[in-house]
Amino acid sequence: MCTDTIINGFTAFGTVAVAILAIWGDWLKATLIPVRLRLVPHNTRGTLTMFNIPRPVIFYHLKVVNDRRWVPARNCRVVLKALASRNADLQFQSVPLPVPFQFSWAPAESTPAFVTVQKEQVLDFGFIAEPTHENPGITRFTPALYSYPNDFRGFVGPGEAVRYSLEVEADGFVSPTYAVFEVEWDGVWNPDLDQMANHLVIRQVAA
User: Fold this and answer.
1) DSSP-assigned letter for residue 131
2) Cα separation of 102 and 95, whole Å?
3) Which of 10, 62, 117, 136 allows an S-S link to 73, with CB 3.0 to 4.6 Å?
């Protein structure tokens, strides 16, 4: 009788435990082992493509990596939190940013603004288009944001450099520090990606 009682007790406990895990499993995992995300370079050499305009465009990408793949990062997004531009003294000065602006996931045409990151997810960081004869000076590096304020000063023109401070957010997670990426362009356009990598340089200066 005693043995049967013990077995029945373990069976009942197991049934309850399974039910709890089915209902609260994700919450327990997120509480006991929270998600951990980091932002890293993915393609700083660039990808040559066409982007809704009849001229070549080079896209550059970053990547959000989930270091705890057994805990999915839900409602994840990457936002621009701060800007700094290089001045004539080669020092970087903070640029006013009214509110954070969200970057688009890749491919932007089919990826929602908020995603679940199980392993990793590629992010559109920015792009630069080939100059035209009609507007040779319009070419600049443009961060891939969903929107821009009228006075946005985060574009990178010839001879300029800008540092972008990015934050990764998800349910129950906010980056403990900003990931800072510097973009510098000397003003030369080249459709050869290996050559262009010498003219437009992207480097991570803080993790």
Assistant:
1) P
2) 17
3) 117
